[in-house]
Structures
1.
Amino acid sequence: MTKIKRNNGCAKKGQGQMQPICYTNCAQCMPKDKAAKKFIIRNIVETAAFRDISEASVFDAFVPSKLFVKLHYCVSCAIHSTVVKNHSGPKRTQHPHPNLDLWVLPNDFRQSPCTELST
């Protein structure tokens, strides 16, 4: 069978074996670096009840507390719940160069320094 991903779907980069975690959706135990991660910040109080609580509150500025949740999905559950999107074969292997913007200069800087500007 052909090898699809160069890193075999893991992002450990020389760290050895990663600790297994239980995924959020399907509860299977797999390595932590193989998971698709999603971080959710949400108010504990919903918006409809927030107005009622702020009116009934003694304090002037009522700041609701927030709920911080990090979700771990396996690859199949992440695709099914559209956390990540699947790509066709040629698009899967194309990776843009991360420092490509550093090499592109505007047209003003591309002129030769020897040419004189006419004013």
2.
Amino acid sequence: MYNSLTRIQNVFGFFTTVAFVVGAIIAATDFTAPRTPSATIKATNVQVVKGRPHYYSSKKEEYAVIKFSLDADLSSLFTWNTKQLFVYVTADWTTADARTGGANQTNAAVIWDTIITSPSSDHLANIGPATLKKLRKSAAGKPVDPNRGKLSLKNQRPKYQITHPTGKVANTDDVTLRVHYNVQPWVGMLTWNQDFDFALWKKMARGVSKAFQLPAVKAKSGK
């Protein structure tokens, strides 16, 4: 009645269904773990320079360099199903857009980012074999370190400069720095910052700096 191929297909279909159900249960367990992220960020030094922001830039333009201090507690985002956490900081501001009749256009530029891995995925980080061996040994059979996900940066230099298609950023008002995160699980969907509370998951507490102004272009010192 059933040939070998049909039997193989039935077995494969059964195990595929089991794997899908187990994966769905694992992903659903994330909703049972409270999330209470918080962050405090402020700009510490802001400069606007005219030059080539990148080595491949074809022309000179204004770009902003923003140093900042950050204290963040994202440890509640780590569970046994967390693979890694992507954290980044953006500078947000609005400008009038002539194409829309002068209506405000929201601008957002990433100035800094980092990846925080969980103990079970430390091997994905760019580390040496000796350090990796120590990390695996220290993480074996232990829960996630409560300090993992905590950041304390003072006067941090940005990884990226701020530019604009117009080539002008000097004297821009109401610029704010905002902390973002992206949770990447082993099984399940990616999740980003929340703008509202959802069950046990709370939105980011604070996480936005006070508004500040980008200064005028820094004048070159004369000789």
3.
Amino acid sequence: MGRLRRSRVHKAQRDVHRATRTRARTRDIDLIQLHDLDPKNRAKLESQPIDVDRPGLGQHYCVECAKYMETDAALKTHWKSKVHKRRVKALKEPVYTIEEAERAGGLGRETRKPKTGDVAQPS
């Protein structure tokens, strides 16, 4: 029996890393919650002036997903899609605050009151 060839473990990682580096990124969920869903900002985003550089001249915009669509029919189909519904569900969850993140990392101060049995009695 001869030597077995080593299995390929590279799995084209170069192409995966290149794709993530050059992929167009959308707005983060926390930015959408804090700024875009505000009624004044939402009205501005939904009624934008005509822009030749944007898809659909910038007239068909989904605020929750931060995407421009080509036509009104495409926007309505997008609203019914699973991708849009997942994004709306994610936007309904509250945003993490800095204090909450610090507590999760063990840096925040404790707000628990010690139990009466845990306190050491002076002798």
